[in-house]
Structures are given as C-alpha cells and as structure tokens.
What does this fold into?
Amino acid sequence: MMLVHGLGLSGRYFVPLARRLAASGASVVVPDLPGNARSRAAAHRAPDVGQLADALACLHQRLSLGPSVMVANSVGCQVAASLAARHPHLVSHLVLVGPALEPGISGWRQFVRLVADAPGEPLSLLPLAAFDYLVTGPLRCAASFQHSLRDAAESFEANLSQVRAPTLVVRGAGDTIASGTWIRRVAALVAAGRAQDIPGAAHAAHYSAPDAMAALIEKFTVGESG
It folds into this structure.
C-alpha cells in the first residue's frame, strides 16, 4: 500500500493509519512528495499534479512494489487519480479520502472551507500540519495550490473517468472541504466506485479515525479481491 499526503504536508499524518495497516500484514510505503516538507529539496520548484504522479510512479517502480492499493487524502487524491490514469498497471485499488479540490469552486472558497474544517480535526494534527507547511514554505504551498486548482478545473474529472481500479471514496461526516455531493460524483466518475462516510471525523479522517479507516480499507480490498 502507498499512502499519498495532501498539499504542503508530509506523510507523517498518515502514520497512525500506516501502523494499523501494517499490523494486519500489509507492506506500507509513506513517501513525502517531491517539493514537500522533508522532500522539499527534491524539486527546485513546486511540481504540478502530473509531475507528482510521475514521480510516485518512478518511486513505485524503483521499489518493485507491483500493483498496489493507493490511499490518498485531499489534494493527494488528484495525484493518485493522475497516477491511476497515467500508470494503471501500478494501481490495484484506489482509496480517496476527502478528495479535493472540487471543480468550479474558487480558490478563496476552498481556503474558507479549509479554515472551517480546522476545529473539527484533532488538536494533535494542527501543530503537525503547521510545521509541515512551514518547512514546505508559503511560496511553495501557494504555487502548489495554483497547480492543484488548475488540475481541478482541467484534468481531475477526466483522470477519474479513466480510472479502472476499484475505488472507495471516503468522507469524514464533518468534512467542510469535500461535500457529500462531490464525493458521490467522484464515486460515479470512476469505473467501479463506491462512497462511504465515517461518523465523527472531518477532512483528515485517516488521522482522526485510523481504526475505522483501516477496517474500511481492509474490507474493501479483501472484498474486491474475493
């Protein structure tokens, strides 16, 4: 399994979920995307969504992972969708947690939604995220946000329509960023999609409800394989 973080962050906020998945016997890879956090120096400037997808594909092939379950959060869902569209042989299953950004929503409204989501997240996530944003840097975060908005407007839905891997779209019931209407549309765009809410969680449902998320992923992947 490969876990793909959101804009400006690192893989650290996936650690609780990674531990639970690994405890069930999965091999779990949690990279920092080039240009982000601890991998900031891996790119001279903020890569766009397609470049991040290709970088993940290179890492995947270098590690000889074989077809993998891709689990992504927020803007990481755009990267995972691009990866699945460009390199379908690398993806066995796709799990999209709080997919962002929703096409047709302005950057300002997306930012307001992000601020509104913060009170619903665990307090321990806020300093972790703030530290990662500072390491990535405000200019890199802003450039990545612009790349992501462009991808949402031009490519995200087209990439989703090319996804053939079974796909689970998950939303924390308190998520103010990814609406229920939007995640159902995402599930409808892919070839084999389903949508699921997690009660008591917000946008980073994998962090606040790792046990519930791990159980969903395990049931989804085992059920599809069976």
